[in-house]
Structure formats: C-alpha cells, structure tokens
Amino acid sequence: MNGIKDALVITKRQLLQLARVPEVLIFNTIQPVMFVLLFRYVFGGLGAGIKGGYVQLLMPGIFVQTVTFTLAATAQGLAQDMEKGLIDRFRSLPIARSALVVGRTLGDALLNIVVLVVMGVAGYIVGWRPTSGPLHIFYGFLMLLFFGYALSWAGVFAGLMSKDARVVANVSFLFTFPLTFLSNAFASTTSMPKALQYFAEWNPVSTMVAAARQLFGFHNTFGVTAHSFPSEHPIVASFIYMVLIMAVFIPLSVNRYKNANRR
Amino acid sequence: MKSVIAENLVKTYRKGAVRALDDLSLDVEEGTVLGVLGPNGAGKTTTVRVLSTLLEPDSGHATVGGIDVIKNPKAVRQIIGLSGQYAAVDETLSGWDNLVMFGQLYHLSASQAKARATELLAQFTLTEAAHRPIKTFSGGMRRRLDLAASLIIRPKVLFLDEPTTGLDPRGRMEMWGVIEGLVREGVTLLLTTQYLEEADQLADDIVVIDQGKVIARGTSDQLKDQVGGERIEIVVAQENLVKAQEVIERVTHGRATVDPGIRRISVPVLDGTQSLIAVIREFDSSGIHALDLALKRPSLDDVFLSLTGHVAEAEIPVDEGKKKGARK
Fold it and tell me: What's the whole-model pTM score?
C-alpha cells in the first residue's frame, strides 16, 4: 500500500512542477495541435477517395505519434533526476524501489490525458468525425493512453541508463521519430517499397494506429502483410506489444534503479 | 556504543582495475563526529554510498545503528539522513514543496509534513525564501535546504558528503554553524571533506583515507603530534639573522632552520610557550628586535603531506554545471 502512496507523492511532484512551470504543459499541448493543423492542411489533398477525407486517417496516426513521444518525455525527466543527484536522495529514503519510476510514468500518463483531450477537440474542429459511438471512442482513447504508458517504461530504462538529460532526449527522439513515420500513421504503407512494407506493417506503431482507427470506426488498408495477425487483429496485437514492452522494460528498469550509480 | 561500523569494505570498478575501496574499515562512536578526510578520488563518496545503502560493496561488512546495511537496507534508510555533494532537491519546486514532498515520502501525514517543513525552514533561516523556486537560491541556501531535507525524520545517523565543497567562504562559515548546531543536539555524524580545516573545526575524530584505504586515524591533535610538536617561528631584520639564530639555539637547545629569503628562523620546541617566553627574554636583553613571532602547531596540511606524500588537492570551487560533467 505504501508503495502506491509513495508513487502518488512522486506523481504529485510532477503536477506541482507543471503548476510552477506552466510553459511545459502549454508546449506539450501546442506541439501536437500544431501537427494536427499542419498535416490536416498540408496533406489534406491526399484524402481524395477516403470517406470523410484524409483527416479521418490522420487523427489516429497523430494520436499514436504523440503518445509514442511519451518515451522521450519520461526518459528526459528521469535523466534530469539522475543528473541532479535527486535519484540518490530518493534511493536513500525508506520508500519502495518502484515508487519513483512508477510515479513518473503515472505523471506522464496524466499529462497524456490532457494532451489527448486537447488534440481530440482540435481534430474535431478540423473535421475529424469518429463514427463508432461514444463507448468505442472512449476505448480508443483508453488504449492510446495504455500504449503511451507502456512506451513510458522504455523511456524509464533509457533515462536511467543515461548520463545527460539532453542527450537522452535527443536519442529517444531519433529513435521514436522514424518509428512513427515508418508506419501507416500518415500515409498508407502500400505506397512504400515492398521491403519497407514488412517493417512498417509489423511496427507496433502501425498496429496501434490500426487499432485506434478500428475503434474510431475507420477502415485500414494493408499491403504485403494484409493477412497477417496484426493486420487482422490490430487491437489484440497492440495489447500483445504493450505487454511485451512492459515485460521487458519494467524488470530492466527496476533493476537499473536499484543499481543506479552516478559514477 | 558504535553507531557506524565498516569492516574491510572493498569496492572495485572496471573488473578490479580501479579499487575505490581497498579493505577500508572505520567506526563512529554514538553522538560523535567522524571526519573522513582525503583528496579527490580517495574513496570518500564511495564510503558514504555504501554506508547509506546506495551502493553494495564487493565484500566487507557494515552496520549503521546496529543494522546491517547490506542485509537490511530498508531499515537503515529509516534512521539515516544523507546530504551529498550535489544539492539533491527538485529545482523547479520551492523549498517548501520539496520539504513537504520528502516528508510525505518519509510517511509523515500531510499536516505533519507541513509542520516539519515550517520548522526546518526556520531552523535553517530559509523561511523568507520558502516559496521561491530552488533555482533562484544561492549555493549556500541550496546546501542548507538539502541538509534540511535529510533531517526530516531526525535521523540517528547523518552522512554529509563534502557539505561545503563549492561554497564561497561565507557559505562555508554558515554551513559550519549549522552543522555545529546539529552536533550540539547530539546527532551522530559522518562527514567527508577535502578541506583540512573543516575536519579540524567540526570532527571529534578524523580518519585520513587515500586510495581507498585508511592511512591514519585519531583526533586532530593526535594526528598533528604524529608529524611533530610545535615550532617557534621568528622573523628578524637581516643584520640580526646570525645573532638571532645563535640565541635561539642556545635557549631552546634545538637546531634552527633559517630561511634567509624571508629572514625567518624556525625551531622545533617541546614546551612551546615556555621556550617562547625564554627566547623573547633573551632577545630583549641582547637587543634583538623580532619583527614577527609565532608558536606554530603543524597544520593538518602538514599531516596530510607527511602521511600521503602528496598535498591534499583542495578542489577549486567550480560552478556546479562543470562538476556535473566531470564523471569518472
């Protein structure tokens, strides 16, 4: 019980930070909204033939991209704590070993709720109209949130491995940015070179995008892997990916935290 | 009773190539202050990290407050306070926010945590700055807040790792005052420092460590006695130099050394003040005028030099940002 309480104190710390430096929250929401507007109006013409226009295909993609970037945010936050020696302070306290990292991932998930709501509203304004009904839309957002949370644990590991917050932020970005573009998030994979299609369609980002589209009531098109498991059952496949990511990175991170050493 | 015991601690890095702790043993009597003195890289921080449960040694054994740090680290964390070289507090938050947060992490209730924060801010003269973000604090204020954060649960044993490194002289004096106050309240303290005067000022006992080993232990006076007793140092005018040396050697029965450049004569003596008075009387009757005159005890710098064969590298205070980059 105390473990959860400790983690919540850490989450509260993160909310306090946002209250003290509101610019962080503002930038965190402006950036995805800017993406929505840019893509909607720059690539809007691609939607010829898509029912409801490109924005229907775009919004799930951009939601997934945004929650994927949680990896970098979590990594940077923890790397900063490492750099400032705060990790040592936390590790010398009589709290659960998991409290700091669990608290951090929860905090980042809370931030994602705000960001997803703002993006959803922005999407609606530029014409996004999910057709699946309130319950499925809710499930869609919930799943996006979980996806971000799972990736957050990869960020925990990256953050605890790092020695410099700026480096880890850049590296995580370099890793997540191509991952979100080598996917079906912004364009159909069928137009990619065939070899790339395999990667793009098995990419967890694509699977998650496909799952979100399905939950929002929009049909996906797949290329070479059209009859593969992820393409036919994107929701189940996405959950499998999330479980895998957490099964790998949670133990790694907790172990890394126990042995965290600035020297 | 010993509050802290470390026995034969060994910690190596890079597969044994670097021996950070090399069979290090020390102990701290309850209610006393042990100064762990050594140059950069001597193993001071590693020692503190092991004793405060942050780092497991390769071998050896340690207890804090009678509790095994390796077998039962969580119980150790209930009774210790740790304040490190870096002010480990959340810089975007205020001092108040930090102390309340750490209070809650020590499982105080919200109201207890707030009461304790108010109390500590007052004790460390930070009440006025309580609601400013730490980013705006001076180095000394940060260190005081960091120390306050380590005192939330009134720890039985306090570890301070170079509490004044990087502070300006004023910040250091303030910090010394704060630490002396804590010591008067009876906390058991293990303090590392590379400032010899700091160990002299604050510690009951001193262990000198170098390359992961304890190379000397004792009170400040005992360590100084290891190097030798007192010396009389007298500066005279150039024309009196020879005559003065002759008088000094006759009175003290010692061999004087003369530094002609600064016209200083120096001689070891056994009964310091007695010899000094005798020398002054003899100077007076011989008509020699002493320009400067002193009875000197060896400094801890002398101790350090004679023990290690090298001077303690007093680290030049560099800005925090620079130090952060300097990792081993």
Answer: 0.81
